[in-house]
Amino acid sequence: MSAIKTLALVAHDGKKDQLVAWAKLHKLALGELTLFGTGTTGGRIEAEVGLPITRLQSGPLGGDAQLGAMIAEGRLDGLVFFIDPLSALPHDVDVKSLLRLAILYDTALAVNERTADALLGVAHT
């Protein structure tokens, strides 16, 4: 079992399907955690995976900042953020701020499936 107890799940539009599929695959492990998610991503996890998740604002509307504050306050153990490296993002500064805070506060951070699996302590499939 992972040392992670609170986990945020975030994905850019081009990666939401991938995050939902990953969450379905690891539903049992994720079900043992307190989950947070930004707007649409959180709604999709709740609706399509059936996991309870506290939904924050959409990333560009403040959700990334809300997660950053949670990290700074020590209320978030881990962040899974499936980033789309091939898309330009109008709120790139918010994403960079969130990642900077995760690094600064030594928060477990996964940006793809392999690191997300490692964060959960499960074998990569």
Automatic annotation (TrEMBL):
Annotated membrane-spanning segments are: none
Quote the SMART domains the UniProt record gives. Answer: MGS
Mind listing the UniProt keywords for this protein, alphabetically?
Lyase
| Domain MGS-like stretches | 1-125
Say yes or no: keyword Membrane present: no
Keyword check for Lyase: yes
Give the family from UniProt: Belongs to the methylglyoxal synthase family.
Fetch the HAMAP family from UniProt. Methylglyoxal_synth
The entry's protein name is Methylglyoxal synthase
- Species name for this entry? Pontivivens marinum
Instruction: Give me the gene this protein comes from.
Output: mgsA
